[in-house]
Design goal:
The complex is a heterodimer.
Chain A lengths: L2 H25 L8 H5 L2 H21 L1
Chain B lengths: L17 E3 L2 E3 L2 H12 L4 H5 L20 H7 L2 E2 L3 E7 L6 H8 L8 E7 L4 E7 L5 H10 L8 H6 L7 H25 L4 H25 L1 H12 L6 H20 L7 H18 L19 E6 L2 E6 L8 E4 L9 E6 L1 E4 L10 E3 L4 E2 L4 E2 L4 E5 L7 H4 L17 H27 L4 H11 L3 H20 L2 E3 L2 H9 L2 E5 H5 L6 E6 L4 H12 L4 H9 L10 E5 L3 E6 L2 E6 L1 H4 L11 E6 L2 E9 L6 H8 L4 E5 L7 H7 L5 E3 L4 H13 L4 E5 L5 H6 L2 E6 L11 E4 L6 H34 L5 H29 L2
The chains are: A mainly alpha, B alpha+beta.
InterPro entries (chain A): Cyt_oxidase_maturation_cbb3 (IPR004714)
Pfam families (chain A): FixS (PF03597)
Protein name (chain A): Cbb3-type cytochrome oxidase assembly protein CcoS
């Protein structure tokens, strides 16, 4: 058995793997909304910030 | 006077300014929202975007129907013992702050486990724990922070909608196969007789064959279906030569590798399908936040309050029966035809008839479905069911079931008719000639002609031109349903306009004063009296009058349905109807007027005129050169003189047109060969919009619903309409030029095919080259048109 068969099989399997990932992504609705995720990503920081201030406030009240 | 801007909603704080934590608010509602949000540490909302909010509306009792199991069941997507998932449409979603607050709903109520916004569709999908929370509570929570969801009869039937993603799947399959086949066929392009390649080429070829199978049998199936349908109805459309090309490519390639004659054309085959689907995908661009298919259901409520034995219960509108007693609250829509029992009914029929003025009704009067109650609570008795009501019956007209695209031959299909005949004759002639010269090559030539003539470039011209122009016009706030609308728009020769809400603007009206001049004290008194009244006419008159010093009135009295009177020092003023102020000689005037008398002597009146959109005259004067212009109004003739002055002389003006009349008028003109463009708004134009060749709905705010139509035009761009029609005509020109371009490629390809020298590598170069150059040409040309638009 020549090495070309192995290479060919591997390359096709890798390609099919990516293809399956694409199909899965479409099925999960990743291509339905092209805008919101781009904004949502920016909020990760904001959430942390508000939690931070929350704990700060709590500390203040504890001291008082 | 300098107004402060509300920290929450961004409106001017005109009447009262509430200050909380140094922040101005225009009303209690806005302040409450701020308080709710700051309690839950969600003030970040205001950092992301300044003044992002909406004033929360009065909703008491409005959502009682959401406690009914039967209705909840129809609205939620998923439901089990503990959790429910629901997707709600919220028109106010407009900025990143909205996304942020709606995705942090769990901070407001811990029973909410997940909320996710789809910005494009303006929806939020919420899952919540039903043990501690309910759909009704969710809706109330959203409303309390200014995000009132819109729930209409439309939601009741659809429930969970199925998203059609088949085109993306097909595109994925074709792209995947195309890429792999290209890799596998590369070696054979150049090193034809190499030893190593010679040994393995069969493996490569059969792998390519395997890759092409899903492309032919799955990705390309739409073309076969369309071609089959076309043949059945004896129409030659563009899909026939495409389907023929795909079939021939596949069979010939399979035969070649099976009989070891050559490497086949799998690269061209998969590439062809990939490019074609790409064109389709590009053209498919739709505006997910707009709907072009709305009927009365989008306007109607899901449920209405029914009174049985003095008890108020929400009832689903389809369950309303003849004889039921219904309670209609302020701002609610009357869902069925009925008779008014009691209450102060003032019905706004602008939805149904286009009439701008709300009409008063007395007990015993007939009320029609589609009217909106505008003052207080009324009780009525249903005399018909929803489907049988006057307004809803309009939808039983056949026009609403007709697909406008049927019966319209697109430019592409028109040209493909001749093209198909030409290609087939060339193929047959070349085959016959080769039968005499070298019969072994005849079949080769026959298939080669069909392969190379596959009209990929022609099929791509229209999708890319229209797709790109659709996108450009979308940026200019002219939203078209699909590409075929653009093509129809270019052929239009008659333009018909509705009046109210279409060529007039909804918001402001102009008032003109006639009568004895008012002195300074009278003017001050007038303005100050109007300040105290909430009547819409008083409000608009107040806004029109110039600023005056604020004085405190000694007495102020509002007589419902008649007018207002007030005194200041020794002066007395009466504002209202002619009868109220003591003006006897009422002439038959159709326009709305407000009469004024001071100290019991009649002074004069303010007559309200429609305020026409900016640039109306100019637009009509530009359009009159090329088109027949008609105004079809459901309103009375009050504005006739005014319109005559404004519009070019040959414009036809027709008044008192019922929805059916408008539809029939258009039908009649179409039967005489006219291609009609209807511009309208409101449900009363729905029939006319559906009947016309192109129906454009004008909208002050595109997020608010427009009736079913082919295109939605933002009201601020109304005066650009002529430019948009011109752009559609230029698009047709671009397509014709790209046809010429693709014919040139075809001639080159046919030379190779007819002479029997078509090698796979030539097809593989020629096909993508022609497709890509067409795409580049059309994109550049449409961008050029776009730049010329303002």
């Amino acid at each position: 058995m020549s090495v070309i068969y192995i290479l060919l099989t591997v390359s096709v399997i890798v390609a099919i793997g990516f293809f399956a990932a694409f199909i899965l992504a479409v099925k999960n609705g990743q291509f339905d909304d092209g805008y919101t995720p781009s904004v949502r990503m920016l909020f990760d920081d904001e959430l942390v910030k508000s939690k931070h201030t929350l704990t700060k406030n709590n500390k203040k009240t504890n001291h008082n | 006077m300098d107004y402060k801007v509300c920290y929450h909603c961004g409106d001017n704080c005109t009447e009262t300014t509430i200050i909380l934590e140094d922040k101005p608010f225009c009303c209690q509602g806005c302040k409450t929202v701020y308080e709710i949000l700051s309690e839950s540490d969600l003030t970040c909302y205001y950092d992301l975007q300044s003044s992002p909010g909406a004033i929360p509306k009065e909703i008491e009792g409005k959502y009682d129907f959401l406690s009914q199991e039967k209705i909840i069941e129809k609205l939620v997507e998923f439901s089990d013992d503990k959790t429910q998932i629901v997707t709600l449409y919220i028109p106010h979603i407009h900025c990143s702050s909205c996304i942020w607050i709606l995705e942090n709903l769990n901070k407001l109520n811990t029973a909410i486990t997940l909320s996710q916004v789809n910005f494009g569709k303006k929806t939020v999908r919420v899952s919540y724990n039903t043990e501690a929370f309910s759909l009704k509570q969710l809706v109330l929570l959203l409303s309390s922070v200014g995000y009132e969801p819109y729930i209409s009869l439309d939601d009741y039937e659809t429930g969970q909608e199925n998203v059609n993603r088949s085109l993306i799947y097909k595109l994925g399959v074709a792209g995947f196969a195309f890429g792999n086949v290209m890799f596998l066929s590369f070696p054979e392009y150049f090193e034809v007789n190499e030893f190593w390649l010679e040994q393995y080429k069969h493996v490569f070829r059969w792998v390519m064959f395997a890759f092409s199978l899903p492309v032919v049998f799955y990705a390309a199936q739409d073309y076969f279906v369309s071609a089959y349908k076309a043949i059945k109805t004896k129409i030659l459309n563009i899909d026939i030569p495409i389907a023929l090309g795909i079939v021939v490519l596949f069979i010939r390639s399979t035969a070649e590798i099976a009989l070891d004659l050559g490497s086949g054309f799998f690269d061209s085959l998969t590439g062809l399908v990939f490019f074609l689907l790409l064109g389709k995908f590009f053209q498919q661009k739709t505006y997910s936040f707009l709907s072009f298919e709305r009927d009365y259901k989008s306007y109607f409520p899901i449920a209405i309050t029914k009174i049985t034995n003095g008890l108020e219960t929400p009832v689903q509108v389809y369950d309303i029966q003849k004889g039921d007693r219904l309670l209609i609250r302020n701002q609610e829509l009357i869902p069925v035809d009925g008779i008014l029992i009691n209450g102060n009914a003032k019905i706004d029929y602008s939805f149904v008839t286009g009439e701008s003025e709300a009409v008063k009704k007395q007990s015993g009067d007939k009320l029609f479905a589609g009217g909106k109650q505008t003052s207080g609570v009324i009780e009525m008795e249903a005399i018909k069911s929803v489907e049988q009501s006057y307004l809803t019956q309009l939808w039983s007209n056949d026009v609403f079931n007709k697909n406008k695209e049927d019966g319209f031959t697109t430019l592409t299909n028109a040209i493909s008719k001749r093209f198909t005949i030409a290609v087939l004759s060339i193929a047959f002639i070349a085959t016959i000639v080769w039968l005499f010269l070298d019969s072994s090559k005849a079949l080769n030539v026959f298939t080669a002609v069909l392969i190379i003539a596959c009209p990929c470039a022609i099929a791509l011209s229209a999708p890319f031109t229209f797709g790109n122009l659709l996108r450009i016009l979308g940026k200019k706030k002219f939203y078209l349903k699909n590409a075929s609308v653009l093509e129809q728009l270019a052929h239009v020769d008659t333009l018909i306009f509705d009046k109210t809400g279409t060529i007039t603007s909804n918001k402001k009206s102009d008032a003109q004063y006639e009568g004895l001049p008012l002195n300074q004290t009278e003017e001050t008194l007038l303005k100050n009296t109007l300040r105290g009244s909430n009547h819409p006419l008083s409000r608009s008159l107040y806004d029109i009058l110039k600023e005056n010093a604020i004085v405190t009135l000694d007495s102020f009295e509002e007589h419902l349905g008649q007018g207002i009177e007030a005194t200041h020092n020794t002066n007395h003023i009466k504002i209202g109807s002619a009868k109220f102020v003591g003006f006897k000689t009422e002439t038959a005037i159709l326009n709305t007027a407000v009469h004024i008398s001071t100290n019991d002597s009649y002074k004069g009146k303010f007559t309200f005129y429609n305020s026409y959109r900016k640039g109306l005259s100019k637009l009509f004067n530009t359009l009159k050169k090329h088109y027949d212009l008609v105004i079809l109004s459901g309103d009375n003739e009050g504005e006739l003189e005014n319109l005559k002055k404004l519009l070019p002389a040959k414009t036809k003006l027709l008044f008192n047109q019922k929805p059916d009349d408008k539809l029939e008028y258009i039908k009649y003109h179409q039967s005489e060969g006219a291609k009609v463009l209807m511009v309208g708004d409101g449900l009363n134009d729905a029939g006319a919009l559906a009947q016309s060749n192109v129906g454009i709905a004008i909208s002050e705010n595109v997020n608010v619903f427009s009736p079913a139509c082919d295109a939605i035009l933002d009201a601020s761009k109304f005066n650009q309409l002529d430019q948009y029609i011109k752009a559609s005509k230029s698009a047709i020109k671009i397509i014709k030029w790209s046809f010429v371009l693709s014919f040139c490629y075809n001639v080159v390809g046919l030379y190779f095919a007819v002479t029997g020298q078509l090698a796979p590598v030539i097809a593989a170069i020629l096909m993508p080259l022609s497709s890509i150059s067409i795409v580049v040409f059309t994109t550049l040309a449409t961008n050029l048109i776009g730049r010329r638009l303002q």
